[in-house]
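ESCALATION

Customer reports they have been waiting on this structure for their group meeting. Please prioritize. Original submission:
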Amino acid sequence: VSALSIESSEVQVECRKAIPPGGEGAAPVYHRVHFIPSVNPDTGKLSIVVNEYDISTLKSVQLELLDAHTKQEHFFAAVSHELRTPLNGIIGLSESLLAGPRCDERTRGVLTVIRRSGVRLAGLVNDLLDAVASKRNTLRITHTRITLPEVVSGVVDVLSPLCSDNVRLVNKVTASAPEVLGDGNRVNQIITNLVSNAIKFTERGFISVSAEEEER
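Update from on-call: job pushed to the front of the queue and completed.
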């Protein structure tokens, strides 16, 4: 610290000690210096009490945890990217086969389950990537026109098989619902998470998804 001005507040500084000549390879030394303004009871003059602590062990643990956390984020991001490509391939192939003219009812049912499962897993992968991007402050929000009936219909189609026999998932968003401006992926994630939680905690009855327009 080359200069420090203290008035009425305490000041705390963490610093790394310079490594002396010949000490290359030695573990770094960190100190925490605490400056406390005080008044000398004898003279009445302003004084400063300086407390210095060796925090090398604490700092070493903090740096190790930070490094481990960074490596974990890189791992999640790498795995998520690797999973996204085959999942998109599975979804695309299943949709292509479903659109084919020679798809009987039994095959259509199997392909529908495959597609729904692929979409669900792709959503989880996107959630992981968003979590990593959010921590890195690189999360991007887009603004596009969203057709809510299509979004909700897709969510209901994917999550309906997760409902038990005693629970019915109902889509009450009508085709006349107006378009909204926002991030389509985020809106899809929010609705998916809300409906997933509703399915998880509903033992019997029905779960409905609806939308209303309010004037402001």
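Sent to customer with the following note: The mean pLDDT is 83.
Escalation resolved.
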